[in-house]
Design brief:
This protein is of the alpha/beta class. It contains seven helices and five strands. It has a domain of about 120 residues: DsrEFH-like (Hypothetical Protein Ychn, Chain: A).
C-alpha cells in the first residue's frame, strides 16, 4: 500500500485506507464536523485580533506613523468584501489621526482579480482600488505569487503597484514605522 493515495486506498477497501487517515476519521463529513468549531474559533479570533489592533491604535495619544493592511485569501473575489473593511478602518483612523498614511498589500489568490483582463468581471473591486489610490493609499500585489501562476507585472493596471514580494513590501512599510493590520 505504500505510495498509494488516500483515494486509491479507499477504493480498495475501508481497512486499507485506515492506516493513512487521521485517527478517528469516519469520512469527510464527520472529520469536517470535528474541525468546524476550531476553524470558526480561529476565524473569530483573527477578526477579534484585527479589531483589537484598530482599537489599540485609536486609543493611542499619538498617531501611528502609518498603517499597512495585509490581505492573503484563497478566494479570487475576496477583495469585494475585504476592501470595504479596509476603507472603513481607514475612515475610523483618519477621523482620529488625519495625517496617518496607509497602504494595502494583497498577496493571495485575491490579487488575481486586480489583473487588467478582469477590470470588467471585477469592476467594483477595480473601482474600490482606484478610489483608494486616488485617496493616496497605494495598493500593492505580489509579483512572486502572481508569477507562480504565469501572471506578470504587465498584467496589472498602472494603478496597482506590483511589488517583488508581498511580505517584503510589508516589511518595508514596517521598517518605516507602519503598524500591520491583517484584514480577513
Amino acid at each position: 500500500m505504500a505510495g498509494l493515495s488516500i483515494i486509491e486506498s479507499m477504493k480498495r477497501g475501508k481497512n486499507s485506507a485506515s492506516a493513512t487517515l487521521p485517527r478517528g476519521f469516519n469520512g469527510s463529513i464527520t472529520y469536517a464536523r470535528r474541525l468546524l468549531p476550531a476553524v470558526l474559533l480561529l476565524v473569530a479570533s483573527t477578526a477579534s485580533i484585527a479589531a483589537e489592533t484598530v482599537d489599540r491604535l485609536l486609543a493611542r495619544s499619538e498617531a501611528p506613523d502609518g498603517v499597512v493592511f495585509e490581505i492573503v485569501e484563497a478566494d479570487e473575489d475576496a477583495l469585494d468584501q475585504l476592501l470595504p473593511r479596509v476603507q472603513d478602518v481607514i475612515q475610523r483612523i483618519r477621523a482620529r489621526f488625519p495625517q496617518t498614511e496607509f497602504a494595502v498589500v494583497s498577496h493571495g489568490r485575491e490579487e488575481f482579480a486586480l489583473q487588467s483582463v478582469y477590470d470588467e468581471k471585477y469592476a467594483e473591486i477595480h473601482q474600490q482600488v482606484q478610489s483608494l489610490v486616488a485617496d493616496d493609499v497605494p495598493v500593492h500585489v505580489c509579483e512572486t505569487h502572481a508569477g507562480w501562476s504565469g501572471v506578470g507585472a504587465e498584467d496589472f493596471p498602472t494603478y496597482v503597484n506590483v511589488a517583488p514580494t508581498g511580505p517584503g513590501q510589508i516589511r518595508l512599510y514596517q521598517e518605516l514605522g507602519y503598524e500591520l493590520i491583517l484584514i480577513e
